[in-house]
Fold these 2 entries.
Entry 1:
Amino acid sequence: MEQTEKQKIIKSRRWELVRQLTVFLIVTVLMIFAVTYVNRVYDKQSLLMIKQNAMRAAVECYSVEGLYPPDIDYLKENYSFTYNEDKYFIFYETFASNVMPTIEVYERK
């Protein structure tokens, strides 16, 4: 009788361990998905913020000087516009000095 009681206890401990490991793995997988999702949202927000800041600097330049800046370098030099050039690429195209330029921000791979 004593042997079967020990076997039952060992078996129940094994199942408890299996349940705990399963819960741990599920929580770990969920955390990985959550971190990945947050990183994607952060990257999208970063692109949007850089674009908005570039547009804001261009409008400021237009309001001060009467002309939109010829390129991004002009904004960096004269209007304290900064961004991580290693991580992002800014497409900046001007049509005329009195027309808002096209500004697009892309993440470098």
Entry 2:
Amino acid sequence: MKSKGFTLIEMMVVMIIIGILAGLISAATFKAIEDAKESKAAAAISAVEAALAMYESDVADYPPEEASDDDNAFKYYLQDDRSLDVSSAWNGPYMSFVDEDLDVPAASGGTKYMDPWGNPYQYKCPGNDDRDYDIWVNGKMDEINSWD
């Protein structure tokens, strides 16, 4: 008489196949998440570049390398330059920063513009190799920057 049901071997084969499929799917998912973070960082750098172009158009210079020890060098100048009295030509804010991209919520004094990995964006003015400025972030695998 034939038994109705699965043998232990059949069940183990099915479990192994499910495990292999789950491993492949999770690896693809993690790669897609990392690619999305890199795209977000590149888009953020492009947005900062556009804001810096507007700032430079009004003020006729780029923000200096360091605004303060507690800030991204560029963020303070793009968001609120009035207290700096650098130029009466300042016509900002040139960029708004949302809470999810700051080290702490803006209402609590968020000071650093953070990349998707939780590190602050880096800014240098003047930049290397005769560039007006450099903006970069060290992603999980590669550096993402404004000059490539």
